[in-house]
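Record type: monomer structure entry
Structure origin: computed from sequence
Chain ID: A
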Amino acid sequence: MKIQIESEIMNRIQIIGEAAYPEEAAGFIFGLDLNGQRIAKEICEVRNSKENGKRHNRYLITPKDFFQGEIAAEEKGLEVIGVFHSHPDHPDQPSEFDKEWAMPWFSYVITSVEKGIAISSRSWRLLDDRSRFQEEKITSVQEKLEK
């Protein structure tokens, strides 16, 4: 499993995470899925709708946000292929809460933001049986050309 994310898009994901600190940021990843090979084309930041006091370690994307995200992606000839969010002062790996609310088909890009600075990002997919996440390799066009 791979997802291609250009450095410009990854930088924007990380900047959004830094700007939201000490709360979690969230948004959609618009792109294409070509037989399991994903290509991120755009992102769309979404307001964290979790109630005040819980946004430091939780995010909520409402059904209305998902609906609007699907429409926005379709208008661009793309689809929602995933969700990104940040983990303030926490590793870039899924939590049990993330697993409980995740959907198996999506890619989940998680950025660790330590003391307001994005330090790393990784992508994950929940297995169909919902037992665990599997890490998804993030590549860029440059990396693809070098191999």
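Annotation 1: Confidence is low (pLDDT under 50) at residues 143-147.
Annotation 2: The radius of gyration is 14 Å.
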